[in-house]
Design a protein that fits this description.
mainly alpha; 2 helices; single chain; 89 residues
Length: 89
């Protein structure tokens, strides 16, 4: 058994939400640069107050509920790994 999420067997819809969350994570935490938050047609070169857009758009309620399902599925997968490892001892 592997810790890979692929082995938790996400369906196509679940995988799409998973990829969306990974992209949001990468944008907000790993690759967050000013360009991705600037609004088009605004001059950011001067000394005036600058307005930036949010680093990411929140998940919809539907996607949030599906993400909860994915997390519970992942927890079940990890629990199965734990039980299997314990039985091998």
């Amino acid at each position: 058994m592997s810790l890979s999420l692929d082995n938790a067997m996400l369906n196509e819809v679940e995988n799409a939400v998973h990829q969306k969350v990974i992209a949001m994570r990468d944008q907000a935490f790993a690759h967050s640069d000013a360009l991705s938050h600037e609004i088009e047609a605004v001059d950011y070169g001067g000394s005036k107050v600058k307005v930036y857009k949010s680093a990411f758009n929140p998940l919809t309620i539907k996607d949030t509920r599906l993400l909860r399902h994915i997390v519970l599925k992942w927890i079940g997968h990890l629990e199965a790994l734990r039980v299997a490892a314990k039985q091998q001892q």
